[in-house]
Amino acid sequence: MVDISRPWIVDTPLSERWPVYTRANVGEVSPNATTPLMWSMIGGPPAEREWKQALVEFGAFDIEEFRPDLIDIQGMVHGYIYLNLSNSRTFGARMPGATPELMDRTYLGEIEAPPYVPHPDDDKPGYTERILATVQRVLGEKARPDVAEHKKLAAKLRAERPDLTALSDSELLARQRSVMEYPYGPTLRTHLRMVYEGSVVTGALDQAVAGLGDPTLAIRLMSGLGDIASAAPNQAMWQLGRMVTASPELTAEFDKGVAGLEERLRSSGSETAQAFLSEFDAFIYEYGSRSTDEWSAAPKSWETHPSIPLGMIDRMRLQDDEKEPGRQAARLRGERQALVAEVTGKLSDNCEALSQILAVLESAELYSRAREQSKTNCIRMLHEARLPVWELGKRYTAKGVLGRPEDITMLLESELDAFIANPQSFVPVIAERWEWYDALDELEPPFFINGEIPPVTTWPKKKDPDLQPAGPGTVLTGIGACPGTATGVARVITDPEDAPDLEPGEILVAPLTDPGWTPIFTSAAAVVVNVGAPMSHAAIVSRELGIPCVLGVRGATKKIKDGTRLTVNGTTGEVTVE
Questions:
Q1: Using the 8-state DSSP alphabet, how is residue 64 labeled?
Q2: How far apart are CA 257 and CA 250, in angstroms?
Q3: Strand order in 475-477's β-sheet?
Q4: Where in this chain does the record put each PEP-utilising enzyme mobile domain (predicted)?
């Protein structure tokens, strides 16, 4: 039996300078234990290098403050990724107009954290000038040409993808490494810096509307912006769903179930099936990089696992026409325009305040779109780096060395060359690591770590009934991310592969929602999520679709049982069990 008390293969020492870590928001990025390949190829040191530079470019840190060969901004504890909350608090202490406590609220909502203990180096006046220069730049920007350029690079990378099946093993590794170095590295740095730049904009918007007496204004003004990259697949899937509903032949095939659907359609000689597949293949070309757990080394992407988007299309075809994303977007744009007119009307006698809010609203539009496009750019590029590794996994599975393509994720990136040189020598290594990983993946990591790590043998199991189901009348609280209310039956879904279980009008209760979940939103009356913040993916997309959304309801997927009737108030952040 494997000894899980020792450090996981990619664990690294935690920071003494910044000792408080949290799983808040990280659960939206990486809810499960982390594979060696993910941390050594994508997260961990590769991401940390870009993250440190992003903070330096923002002006909030000097590179010398970080340990050169270790990770500080992230944390890796028995296979689980953490965010360094102390480092974020230092950012808040140095940021004019912010505080460590404000950073806590940004990442944690109302969750109580270990108390902030000031460090002599936290609040240093020398950073103020640099940070203010960044703030001035951000609030004055009218476009993000760097994000637009990265979008072109991502499209070029996809268009120039070679036939991976024709490449040798070593050529596959060379392509993976080349993409990760460029263009992925600089694109990731831009995205990470933009996360902090986006916080400047949301803070400015909160401040601009603070005196108008409506705490929901900031969120409502961030709705219906349009042209959000991560919402784009919804409209494309909707059109595919309408193709199904318009065709008795396609409807009959979908009615048989998603299992084997693609194979049935491809083996059909009918023009209708081929027309649908032509559109579906174009969809996969454009959006096939999307998945759940988007930063992992071998996610179930829509390209490698097409049954997942087909299952989402299956749900969309059942929706009424009024749920069309385009129709919803037009309605929301109209509501937002009316709200902007109302707000500016109230400030018509105050030229300075009016000018300020118009400028901030322009920045909010720019950064909401740019941040989601930046994330999309990263994922499209990362997909091109992961596919060669996936091809290796499939290749050695076919040879009988691996039991499944995902087995390759138990290797470190630095071990891949040795693996292709002598694959059999890694068979026992992979087996032991899977046993170790599976044991860790059963555990619920501590939400906070403050200096010392509780023994892993004391961590509860995820399936343990540690949270009692919420009874009638219970009000669960989180962060209101999209205004509006909805009442319906809860459907707890922990994997988008289960999307066919979601019936029209039900309330989606999910552990996280990255872009791989987006199309499911269209089938839901409202969304409740365990984690998230006002500028997280779930918040931005729900506001584009006009779906009431409450984030940061800690333990929602355990407290809320399937079939429970809920009322979700996306304005107040309350979820009431009926």
A1: G
A2: 11
A3: 475-477, 574-577, 565-569, 485-492, 506-510, 524-529, 549-551, 479-482
A4: 503-573
Structure tokens at 78: 């028995």
As given in the structure block, the two tokens for residue 528 are: 């409740």
Domain spans in the chain, listed from the N-terminal domain onward: 1-140+422-459, 198-413, 475-577
Are the C-beta atoms of 523 and 200 separated by less than 8 Å? no
pLDDT digits (tens, 9 = 90+) for 475-509: 999 888 888 899 999 999 887 777 677 888 899 99
What gap in Å lies between CA 113 and CA 88, rounded to an integer? 13
Q: How many CA atoms lie within 13 A of 520 on its CB side?
A: 32
Pairing of strands 448-450, 475-477: unpaired
Helix (H) or strand (E) holding 524: strand 524-529
pLDDT digits (tens, 9 = 90+) for 501-551: 788 889 999 887 776 777 788 888 999 988 776 667 677 778 878 889 998
- Residue 201: which of 355, 356, 94 has the closest Cα? 356
Is the CB of residue 109 less than 8 Å from the CB of residue 533?
Answer: yes
Dig out the tokens for 80 from the structure: 């689980």
Q: What would the two tokens of residue 502 be?
A: 């979601």
Give per-residue pLDDT as tens, 289-327. Answer: 998 788 999 999 999 999 999 999 998 899 888 888 888
The residue whose two tokens read 């066919």 is 500
Return the SS3 of 290.
coil
Give the Cα separation of 268 and 542 in Å (integer): 37
Confidence at residue 42, expressed as pLDDT on a 0 to 100 scale: 97
What's the fold here for domain 475-577?
Glucose Oxidase; domain 1 (3.50.30)
> Please, what is the Cα angle at 113 between 36 and 96, to 5 degrees?
95
Torsion region of 332: left, alpha or beta (phi above 0 gives left; psi -120 to 50 gives alpha): alpha
Rg (CA), the chain: 24
If you search the block for the tokens 């779906």, which residue do you land on? 547
- Which of 47-56, 197-206, 457-466 reaches the highest mean pLDDT? 47-56
Q: Which two tokens stand for residue 175?
A: 């392509």
Residue pair 288/301 in contact (Cβ under 8 Å)? The answer is yes
Contact indicator for 253, 264 with CB cutoff of 8 Å:
yes
Percent of the chain with pLDDT over 90: 68
Q: How confident is the model at residue 218 (pLDDT cuts 50, 70, 90)?
A: confident
Helices in 160-317 by DSSP H: which ranges? 169-179, 185-209, 217-221, 232-245, 248-255, 261-267, 271-287, 307-316
Rounded CA-CA distance 111/128 in Å is 29
Residue pLDDT, tens place only, 85-140: 999 999 999 999 889 998 888 777 667 899 999 999 998 888 999 999 999 999 99
Q: Distances in Å between the alpha carbon of 456 and those of 3, 5, 238, 332, 443?
A: 10, 6, 45, 47, 8
- Pairing outcome for strands 574-577 and 475-477: antiparallel
DSSP string, 330-364: HHHHHHHHHHHHHHHHHTTT-HHHHHHHHHHHHHH
Distance of CA 62 to the CA centre of its chain: 28
Q: Which of 376, 340, 318, 348 is nearest to 501 (CA)?
A: 318
Q: Tell me the whole-structure pTM to 2 decimals.
A: 0.91
